Amino acid sequence: MARDSLTQYREKRDFGKTPEPSGTFTKKSKEPVFVIHKHDASRLHYDFRLEVDGVLKSWAVPKGPSTDPREKRLAVPTEDHPLEYADFEGVIPEDEYGGGTVMIWDRGTYENLRKEDDEPVPMQKCLDDGHVTVRLKGEKLSGGYSLIRTGKGKNTRWLLVKMDDDEADARRNPVSTQPESVLTTRTLEEIAEEETA
Asked: 143: helix, coil or strand?
């Protein structure tokens, strides 16, 4: 399953030019991981990624995640990424797909909160159903978040929404107040300058 789901990812990239990982399908941890990349491509956005069945399921979130439950953030599905991408930070050449600077803005593990008969609903079924609910245990973000699919066909969209729990905070704006990498504490500008020097 993992090999097939990475076909689109590999077809879009020339690994002789890009430093991005091609993927070897290794399981990283007992708990599934999440990572949020800040990506300065043609437009600055955040990539929200959840480990599911050996790959990182991914959504581009133009405004980045919020800690305010009243905020509904557009999340556009993108191709699956290899697990190794959770550790990727660097500069993708401009002539490559997704060119620009990539930072690990947040990362950690997550817990699937959807249950039926006191058993977790498999994450792939949650995705198929269009309703994912997880508890993030990150360095910047924690608590419950939902990914909700709306619309059908060409009008299909996903929304990323913070759950109204103890970690919700309408006054906090981590996208603005915590711009550095959790891996290296560098800014996007520092990563671009150091990686291309």
From this structure: strand
User: Over the stretch 95-139, which tens digit does the pLDDT of each residue have?
Assistant: 888 889 999 999 999 999 999 998 999 999 999 999 999 999 999
Among the listed residues 152, 151, 149, 5, the one whose alpha carbon sits nearest the alpha carbon of residue 85: 5
pLDDT, tens digit, for every residue of 83-94? Answer: 999 999 999 998
> Which of 32, 8, 5, 9 has the alpha carbon at shortest distance from 22?
9
| Mean pLDDT within 28-41 | 90
Residues 6+ apart with CB under 8 A from 168: 67, 68, 69, 143, 162
Residue 189 sits at φ, ψ, to 5 deg, of -65, -40
Give the mean pLDDT of 157-179. 96
Chain position carrying tokens 């994912």: 132
Rounded Cα distance between 65 and 76, Å, is 13
Q: Specify burial of residue 38 (Cβ count, 10 A radius: 0-12, 13-18, 19+).
A: buried
Helix (H, G, I), strand (E, B) or coil at 92: strand
